# Entry
Amino acid sequence: MRKLLIITQKVDRDDSVLGFFHGWILSLAEKFDQITVICLWEGRHDLPGNVSVLSLGKEAGASKIKYLRKFFKYIWREREQYNTVFVHMNKIYVILGAFFWKLAGKKIYLWYNHQAGGALARLAFLLADKIFYTSPFSFASGRKKTLAMPAGIDTGQFKRREETAKEKSSLLYLGRISPIKNVEVLLEAAKILDEQGVDFFLRIVGDADDQNYLRELKAQAKELREKGKVKFLPGVSHNQTPPIYNQSEIFINLTNSGSLDKTTLEAMACQTLVLASNKSYGGVLPQELFFKETDAQDLAGKTAAILGRADQENLGKKLRAIVETRHSLNQTIEMLVANLK
# Structure
């Protein structure tokens, strides 16, 4: 029997950031006889009978000591229910469990796509049997035992929906509202577009990590908000994002070069045009869809040029084809199954 242990942060189909992983578990459940999932936080999920979910209790306010006790209890108690371990992103679990798993003959696989690394990441890489990553800027890129992977976009869920009309000159930012996302650069570009008389409407959809930063952004956008050019909306569950992508002409990602942000690829799968400064998309996006990092003037110019293009529909179809051929969930699952021995 093929029996897999997955360790991840959240199992919650409604989570705005990690909700996608619910779909990964569903797809893996079709390939394995049994899956046990240990997660830090358990939310709403709808998983088949061959999947069991064990929470470390963060959703109930458990302490870190209780997390550790539960983690060691679960990996020991469930030892006969898995023969392979797949740790998603969090390197510390590889380090904590490796001694037992090595003694028990369990293979250890780590998905690690962070740009940052350090001593703990190196130790986890040493202990793992293989490390998966998607971005060429990942700390794992180019190291021993590592394998570049597709990003894993569910192209059945993220697709063009003809019943949802594209809103003319609509721009979208969707994701965490955090200083590392450079949202203030987008607002500066919006101000430039407005001064140039370019017709547009910008939605900023997401929850803020830092409420002070959010207040600063809203103050920066005060005039544009009063004109009806900019609107801030709260974050939504991952399942609710496809219609939002579908109604927008251009999705804008301002994250600096590093990880391969799934939101950009999800927008592309919905045939929404995208603009990005992240060099991780080199070889993925056509050159005209890049702007200079943190350069509001360049972003404004690229946005105005794309809003005026007559071939938006054809370009959107090309962007979806890129995701289908290089970053689909089916490709990711097939490669994982082939490697999780």
